[in-house]
Amino acid sequence: MEGYDQGVTVLGRPIEGKVVVEVDASIDLDIQLPAESKNSSEILILQGRPIDEPLAQHGPFVMNTQREIYEAFQDYSRTQFGGWPWPRDDMVFPQEKGRFALLNGSETSPADSSNDEL
After folding, report:
1. Most buried by CB count within 10 Å: which residue of 87, 106, 109, 114?
2. What share of the chain is helix, strand, coil (3-state, %, to 5)?
3. Sign of CA pseudo-dihedral 61, 65, 66, 72
4. Could you report the per-residue pLDDT of 48-71, keeping only the tens digit for each?
C-alpha cells in the first residue's frame, strides 16, 4: 500500500506506510479509507500459492539462488535481454502507440495478428 497512511484499515487493522499484508483468499477483503481523507492510496492486490522454493531477488531479477542472480546480471550485461533494439535502456513509448513487438526488425501489434493468444 502506498499513499494515504492515516486511518486506512485492512480487515479492521490499521495500516501505515508501505507494507505487505497476507490475507486469507477465502474471505472477503475489507479495505477502508476514511471519508475525510484528502489524499489517494495505491493498493496492489496479488494472489498466489507458496511454491516452497528458495527465493533470491536483486533489482528486477528473481531467482532461486544468489548464483542464479549473478548469472542473470551477466546474461543481461552480455545480451541486453537477447538484443535490446532501442537506443536507451529506459525507453518509453506514447500510450496511444498501444501494445507491439519488434522481432527481427519487424514491428507487429495484436491487431496485426490472427493469433488470438496475444
Report:
1. 109
2. 20, 20, 60
3. negative
4. 887 889 999 998 899 999 999 999
CB 19 within 8 A of CB 52: no
The count of other CB atoms within 10 Å of the CB of residue 8 is 19
Dihedral over Cα of 97, 98, 102, 107: its sign: negative
Three cell numbers at 34?
476514511
User: Cα dihedral angle (48, 21, 33, 47), rounded to 10 degrees?
Assistant: 0
Domain boundaries, the chain: 1-48, 53-84
Q: Which residues, other chains included, contact 70 with Cβ-Cβ below 8 Å and sequence gap of 6+?
A: none
How many other C-beta atoms can be found within 10 angstroms of the C-beta atom of residue 24?
8
Contact 72, 63 (CB under 8 A): yes
Q: Please give the Cα distance from 114 to 116 (Å, whole number).
A: 6
Give the DSSP per-residue string, 5-53: -SS-EETTEE--SS------TTS---EE--TT--S-EE-----------
